Every structure is written in structure tokens, then in C-alpha cells.
């Protein structure tokens, strides 16, 4: 089918099928069963098997009729491709329907106090107990652990083999007594992260993804798609996070459109806020500020082209790390220019600040170069994969994990 036919089909379907009086759950299910909600998903799993570049066209048809988009977030953008690659048919059917229309949400339970960049050093233990696994250990920086349905959990199931080979990947129910999230207060005033203690938490064997000891290949798929999940264009445009499935779909669409559901956070709108600050503080003619604004404009344009390349391929490639590094650079420069033009007023917060939104962005800015793999790790990746530089030497590859030294953590 060519582009024109796809657009025509999507238009016809959305015009005939969008009904704002359906509940959110009914509308999500209708989209899943038609394949038009997530058109890049395979046809047998609620999609149309279309290339990523076409998803944008379908989205435009949905927006044109004012229809609510399907759930966004790391479930559809990150877990779904992991399921396509590593899940059994039963897992794909159950988890994809859960994400698409039953209100399931997920989080990442990978980083640990002594294993962040080096995820293969995870020490959270999973021990088989009949048809279940018992999980014991600690994860950290776990965003949204207190509110999601289940976490994507990396755990060690074998301590007597080299570190990459003793790992398994689970979809662990997050709301159970054995999973205890403790919120961590951030310097921007919010508390989205958690330190999560697992004390004999239970996961069914049916929720082991990729098989016992196959946790590292699954994690590599996770890492491939994770960077993509930072790209706003990768999301279908519906609500992030838990949602009331019994609400009228039209009502949620209206709230999404006016910004009262899922208020924009992160870097959205920062460019406009920065331009306003430059004018408000009368610095638009300052040659240094003009030079910085020109650099920002150029980097954003380059990133736009990189994102187009990323969207043109169905599997995220090395554009992911490049794009992530560029976002880190842009974020730092925006923060520095914005705080610089404000001078002493840049230290104010909340209602006292010239731009409360910008100040919150500035306080949140370090997260960009850490979350989803630090800048240094992205550069290592590019050095090895693009420049062909040798990997760092290590004696860890062949030794059983139980024989490796490990750092003493200061986390409680
Ligand atoms: C906003 C945000 C959200 C997050 N959400 C989650 C989440 O939901 N779930 C989750 O599991 N984790 C999450 N994280 C954790 C994040 O993935 C880790 O913080 C990150 O991978 C770095 O790990 P670390 O903090 O242990 O630092 P470390 O790995 O200890 O690194 C410390 C420093 O050493 C450098 N370094 C480490 N190894 C190398 C190397 N080989 N070469 C060069 N430099 C190196 C790093 O770049 C860094 O500067 C989140 C983090 C942030 C900021």
C-alpha cells in the first residue's frame, strides 16, 4: 500500500470510528483491535506493520478528527518492542492488551546502588520457587514505582557464571507487599524517583521475559529502544501514566488538548520561555547572547535531521545516542543562557521567579545527561560502534560473578 492509500484508510477509519461518548477503555480497545492505534506494531499484535515514518501521517488523521490518542509512555514505546522480540505469544497477547487498553503501566527496575552504568553488575536476586520466583534486593532511581502496574526488572538468577550470563528479566507486579518503594526528594522539589526494596517479592514464572539466563540480550533490546522513548515523536500522543478508563473518551481528549491532563513537563516550551527571558531582560541585542541563541538554533536543527533519520528506520540505531547527547548539550546551553540573562534573579524560585517554568527546568537539567545512560556511556558506545575503538580491557568477562569484588553502597 502506498502512502496515499494508508492516509485514506486511516482517515476513513478515524472519521467512522471516533465516538467521544465511549469510555476511554472502550475507545482504546477499539483502536487496538483495528490496528490504527499503534500502526507500527505488527498486524497480529494490534498494529498495521507500518514503518515509523508513516505513523506520523496516521497520527495527523487522528488529530484531524479530534480523537484521543492511545496510551503513551515507556509501555508502548519500550516494553512493546521488547515483547515483540523476546516475548512468547501468550506474553505478547496479555501484556500488549494490558498496555493498549486495560490501563497497565510500567516502570524500569534496572539501576541499583552499585550498578547503574554497569547494569550487568546487578545484585538483586531472583530465586525459583516452584512456578514462581522470589525477588530480594534493592533498585534505585526507579521512576514511578509507586504508581505503576509492574516493573521491568533485571535480576540475578545465577551467581556462578560470568556476570552477563547469570541475569534474567522479569515483568514484576509493582503493587505487592514484597515491593516497597521509598520516594527520593529531588532538588526540583518533586519526588518521582524511588529507592525500591524487594523482600521476597513474587513474580510468576509466566512473567519471565526471554527465558532464564537470557536477561542480558533482553536488556540490550531495552537499551536500544530506551533512548527512542525520550523522543516525543516516538509517543502516539495519548495520556502518559495511569488513567481513568471509565471516563468519557471525549472528556479526556478535551483535557489532553487544553493541557489539564498530563501537563507538559521537562523541556517542552523551554525554547519559548528562553526567548521571552532574553527579551524581558533586554538582552536581545547582546552579541554573546545572540551567538548562544544561534548555536542553540543550529543544534536544534541538526537534531531535527537526526530525528528524521531515526524515524526513517524501524529499529533505532546509532542516531539514538547522538540525539541523546545533543539533547544534553542543548539542555545545558539553554539553562546557562537562561540563568545568565537573568543574573541574580536566576536564583529565585516559584512565584518570585521571572519564569517559574524555566527555573524548574534549570533545576531539572542535570537529569538529561544521566537518565537512560550518561553522556559518557553514550560516547563510549559511539567510540566502539562508530569509530571502531577497542573496548575497555576487563578481567570480568570470564570470571564467575560471585568471585568479582563489589563496592560498598551507602544506600539504606
Ligand atoms: C531522571 C532520571 C530518571 C531515571 N529513571 C530510572 C528508572 O526509572 N529506572 C532505573 O532503573 N534507573 C533510572 N535512572 C538511573 C540512571 O539510569 C542511572 O543514574 C545512570 O544509568 C547512571 O548510573 P549511576 O547513577 O549508577 O552512575 P554510575 O554508573 O555510578 O556513574 C557515575 C559516573 O561515572 C561515569 N562512568 C561510569 N562508567 C563509566 C565508563 N565505563 N566510562 C566512562 N564513564 C563512566 C558516569 O558517566 C557517571 O558520570 C534514572 C536517572 C535519572 C537521572
How would you sum up this structure, described in words?
The strands form 2 sheets. This protein has a 4-stranded mixed sheet with strand order 1-4-5-8. Strands 2-3-7-6 form a 4-stranded antiparallel sheet, with no helix packed on it. The protein has 412 residues and is of the alpha+beta class. The longest helix is centred in the C-terminal third of the chain and has 26 residues, at 287-312. Helices cover 41% and strands 12% of the residues. It folds into 3 domains: 3-102 and 229-251, Butyryl-Coa Dehydrogenase, subunit A, domain 1; 106-214, Butyryl-CoA Dehydrogenase, subunit A, domain 2; 264-373. It has helices spanning 3-17, 24-34, 52-64, 74-86, 89-101, 215-226, 249-258, 270-280, 287-312, 319-342, 356-364, 375-385, and strands at 106-109, 125-129, 132-139, 150-156, 167-173, 179-184, 193-204, 208-209. It has 12 helices and 8 strands. Bound molecules: flavin-adenine dinucleotide.
CATH level 3 topology of the largest domain: Butyryl-Coa Dehydrogenase, subunit A, domain 1
Distance between the termini: 57 Å
Structural class: alpha+beta
Helix content: 40-55%
Mean of residue pLDDT? 92
Bound molecules: flavin-adenine dinucleotide
- The total of helices stands at 12
CATH architecture of the largest domain: Orthogonal Bundle
Q: Please give the CATH class of the largest domain.
A: Mainly Alpha
When the domains are counted, the total is 3
